[in-house]
Write the structure tokens for this entry.
Amino acid sequence: MIEQDTKQEQWQNHTVRVAVPASTANLGPGFDTLGMAVNLYSWIEMKVSTETKITLLGDELYGIPTDKSNLIYKMAQLVFQKAQVTIPDLEITMYSDIPLTRGLGSSASAFVGGLCAANALIGFPLTDKDILNISTSIEKHPDNVAASLYGGIVVATWDGQEANCIQITPPEDLETLVVIPEFQLSTSKAREVLPTGLSVADAIFNISRSSLLVAALSLGKLDMIKTGMQDRLHQPYRASLVPGMQQILEQATEQGALGIALSGAGPTMIAFVDRHSVQKEQLEQYLVDTMKDQGINAQAMWLKPVTEGVIYYDDIESHSFMDVIKGEVRL
Ligand SMILES: Nc1ncnc2c1ncn2[C@@H]1O[C@H](COP(=O)(O)OP(=O)(O)O)[C@@H](O)[C@H]1O
Ligand SMILES: N[C@@H](CCOP(=O)(O)O)C(=O)O
């Protein structure tokens, strides 16, 4: 106990800051398996305090609780519990650019961010693999959490106890265009529409596409992405939840996409695009217009795959948290 108190004192003035990338899960056929980190971020600052205070900045975190039921606070307590440390009060500040409940992994980034910030706060007692296992056991989708944690393209598995993951460096010429509808669609709602069984023919279809996609992304064979992103496991069932989705899945490659998929559980759709493509504007217009024709306002955004996952900021003294958020400190 004496030793623990001394340790707590040691952490008393300690502040940590992390940035966590958003993720796009499934990449079409790799349901609950494939993911990729993209350059939209959540930032968390955490320090030991005498009273818990949670401050959420920006528009994206509207409605998230600021008491001890906050997910970041809860993740921190989980880390302290695993490390057998008692730190009841924390000052947490968070800012996020990741739209909530749209299929860009906001929940996974919050789980991973809370765990990683707390782990850094007490001197990294947990390994990244521990954090992968803990966050997957809560979030259940290793595709999102592995991408946010490690960055890059991830191929991940989860057996209910242990997650495993291999990273692939995204092809240099790969860019993505997301079209983000104005409405939210929770992952749980988008999982409710899935069937409980699958035909062998559909299973073969998805295994072959998913494997082809992994090979194509590993070797930079962009011409195979169109076939590799096809899916029969979840998208056909989710299409009814996203107006315009079916049409976009059928036509986007004619409008300049290398391949197209629902991002995570949606409603965002993600097009893979060759950064040299001359059809970028055409594709952007097509995606926004197709949703608009269905009465849905949607925002198009060009995102780059990122190879780095969670980023820890070392030089806390020289910069304010606002400098970090505004991008004045290099990611
Ligand atoms: N920073 C955060 N703090 C607390 N809860 C969060 C945070 N970010 C996301 N969440 C929770 O995750 C939910 C969205 O998760 P989900 O439906 O899986 O969609 P997605 O992860 O695609 O954004 C939000 O409605 C919110 O409850
Ligand atoms: N594999 C999951 C991914 C959910 O991703 P999210 O970004 O929508 O939370 C699924 O498709 O249900």
The chain has a mean pLDDT of 94. The first strand starts at residue 15 and ends at 25.
